[in-house]
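User: Oxidoreductase, Desulfovibrio psychrotolerans:
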Amino acid sequence: MKTFDAIILGAGASGMWCAKTAAARGLSVCLVDHARKPGKKIRIAGGGKCNFTNLHVHPGDYTGANPHFCKSALARFSPWHMVEYLSVHNIAWEERDHGQLFCTGSADELACALEAECTRHGVCWMLRNTVQNIAATATGYTVRVSGAEGVEELTSSSLVIALGGPAWPQAGATDMGHRVARQFRHPVVPARPALVPFAMPGDWPLHGLSGIAVPAAITCAGRRFEENLLFTHTGISGPAVLHASCLWQPGMPLEMDFLPALSVENALREAGGKPLVRTVLGRLLPERLALALVPEKLGGMQVAQLSRQDTDTLRQRVHALTATPARTEGMRRAEVTAGGVDTGHISSKTMESTLQPGLYFIGEVLDVTGQLGGFNLHWAWASGQAAGLALRPASKE
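Assistant: Predicted structure for Oxidoreductase:
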């Protein structure tokens, strides 16, 4: 039997950050994961460049049943903490649109730096190990794992759940973290895909435009997201869509504006009375999209022939097209999981359970979902740091 101050289940972003933070304080830490290498999502995030944070991190960029929960951890861990971390480890980075920070080399550099720091501080690695059983004891927790060395029992005074959610199962994701939470009487907000494309209904008028990308604005649940939209074989994707998916619930309509930067009425007025409507819109939008948006009868009219009702119809089609997605593209296409462990029974300062002493939840396993752009990885670092600083050494009694 191996005994530690803390056992951390999950060697992803939040788990490794928590491990290196706690181990640097002198705690004995064991990291358990079923993967061959730690930090798989870090290594493949951002197309292998890892969008590791965002300069504009703000609590308003996160959704969950309690929108205030993330404030404490975020207030104590800024984007500049991550910039400093990369600088110390000589990892080059760059700023892209909307404050997104990426590694300029390979995301492997960041994952390897975290792995090396954990090792330097004495973290015990138990990779390629599957958790068989978890039990609370009078002094903490016992975790039974099985791997190449057979079945082993680990004990600790604290247990950290950094197992993420079921999104992106091809990267090894499961719902085990949610199952552990329920084992210890923690309610779980039902998991759903987030940062995920939408499949549109069969009667949607804009089918057949696969491959077209345009700047657009999508309004969902009262929030407007303005960025690129991409038409796919089954529906829509692109940054604006992924943002909206964090708020979307089945049956909820989307409102789409395909010319967010200008007014279709002004464009028609400036064109004069002679051009055909489809000609004017064809100059502003990809031709196939313009033809799909404009009713054929209106498209063939000259601008001067339009009635007020015709203009209202065009405005609605171009600036406020409303449609309800049939579904999302599911967990396999989702970058993150929305929902998760209800934060109502978690300390926002330490990430410790208020129902079960010594039990901590960090990262994506919690009901905290960030928008696209580095916000979810920043939450992993921030929540991992909060728990890593709060973990207590085992009692010497």
